[in-house]
Amino acid sequence: MPPNVLLVITDQQSRFAQSAAGNEWVRTPHLDSLSASGVRFTRAYCAAPVCSPSRASLATGRPPHQTGLMANGMPWPGDMPELCGHFLSHGYDVGWVGIRPGIPSPAAAGPRFELLLPEGVGTRLGRESDTAIADAAIRYLRRPGRQRPFFLGVTLINPHDICYWVMGQAPDAAGDDPLPPLPPGFEPAPDEPDFIRRCRRRTHYGPENTFTRDWDRHDWRRYLREYYALTERADAEVGRILDALREAGLEEETLVAFTSDHGEGMARHRWVVKLMMWESVVSVPLTLSWPGVIPRGQVRGQLASGLDMLPTLCDYAGLPVPPGVVGRSLRGAVDGDGPRREYVVTELHPDDQDLAFAARIVVSQHHKYAAFSEGRPREVLFDLEVDPGETRNLASDPSHAPALAAHRRYLRKWVERTMDLDFRLPQEAGTA
Asked: Which of 73, 113, 142, 349 has the most CB atoms less than 10 A away?
């Protein structure tokens, strides 16, 4: 019998915001226990560092320029196969609780699909909604007499409340815990690209960074403490859901996948929230667990993408992958015998009023490369092994010319393979 599938997605949780990742300033015992029961990826990246585009890519396995959802507020792709509809059409009972993805309406899907939205979810803070979301998921898991396997998606809101805290619109959650230290690369580079400077000034879409202009170092440390406290709240709700799965006797027959839609600035380069290229923003936690099938307590350093969620879950469930999916199954990487991919790509559209203002971020095993649609410089290259704070742009360093050329090739391959033809490559413009 195919497995049940439980997909849990937090909102705005960086892969660095988990104690299993070595962060001693955040306590995530329930996510850590999930990691101990399965495989945790240390190099997973979102398809886009903003909520709705990333979620659309998680659901469809396609990048934002293909789904057409490149900024928050745009319509969900209605004509592409996605997780809920695909599992529903292959014999699964399907439930979704929390922030709604682009999924079939209950009326169209029939009784085997349930949209379990507690009243007010999507209009309230996570501190007001996540317990209700977890409660709805728990009720679903406790139902007796199942005749078919189920697919249940659960989308928690926290630690997204940090957006409102930064803008002074949410109360403290942290209490009097010690203040975390500031991260490597806290100060912006003196030669910061024009593209990033423009993003710092934006007030009409993701304006949170404009609220930090007068912060001192103590304010930044308070922000980190608050972010970790909100992450711990999300972890507690995940723990309740995992407890219910075990209590219902479903753990052995359920594949659990955990990730987040994107990360958080975490004070790197004095950046808060999302819509940027820094590692803390574009990297996300990713854990897969299925007792007896997925190895226990393993860590994988292979590159992974949010685009991989759909094909990976299909692989474990024995379902065909819908046509047109760009992501790939991670099952080989989980088992430790899959080929290592050369690179993954994250798409950045940081202005919902100017979608041509964009960047493409290419991450390889050792480097990160970003190409910007405008400004100078139009390219940056970081050696993530020796410079994890992303403080030294090597794009103009002759000794790193081979690495720059390799990542330009990666991006060109991506553009050609995925028909990302609206993005203008820097070297074509002669402004590299």
From this structure: 349
Instruction: Classify residue 399 as exposed, middle or buried by CB count within 10 Å of its CB (0-12, 13-18, 19+).
Output: exposed
Please give the full DSSP string across 116-179, using - where no structure is assigned: ---TTTTTS-HHHHHHHHHHHHHHHHT-----S-EEEEEE--TTTTHHHHHTT-S----TTPPP
The count of C-alpha atoms lying within 13 angstroms of the C-alpha of 385, restricted to the half-sphere facing its C-beta, is 5
Select from 362, 231, 372 the least CA-distant residue to 305: 362
Length of the chain equals 432
| DSSP code, position 49 | S
Give 378-432 pLDDT, tens digit per residue. Answer: 999 999 999 999 999 999 999 999 999 999 999 999 999 999 999 999 875 444 4
Q: What pairing do the DSSP bridges indicate for beta strands 359-364 and 367-372?
A: antiparallel
Residue 398, number of CB atoms within 10 A of its CB: 8
How many Cβ atoms are within 10 Å of 97's Cβ, its own excluded?
A: 26
Find where tokens 């501190």 sit: 127
Task: Give CA–CA dist 372/192, Å, rounded.
Answer: 12
CA dist 352 and 60 (Å) reads 21
Question: pLDDT per residue over 68-117, tens digit each?
Answer: 999 999 988 778 899 999 999 999 999 999 876 555 444 445 557 887 77
Measured from the Cβ of residue 123, the count of other Cβ atoms closer than 10 Å reads 8
DSSP secondary structure string, 332-357? HHHHT-SPPPSEEEEEE---TT-TTS
On whether the CB atoms of residues 134 and 154 are closer than 8 A, the answer is: yes
What residues are paired with 351 via a beta bridge?
A: none
Residue 345: Cβ within 10 Å count: 23
257 secondary structure, DSSP code: E
CA nearest 152: which of 192, 122, 112, 209? 112
Q: Count CA within 13 A, CB hemisphere, residue 423.
A: 28
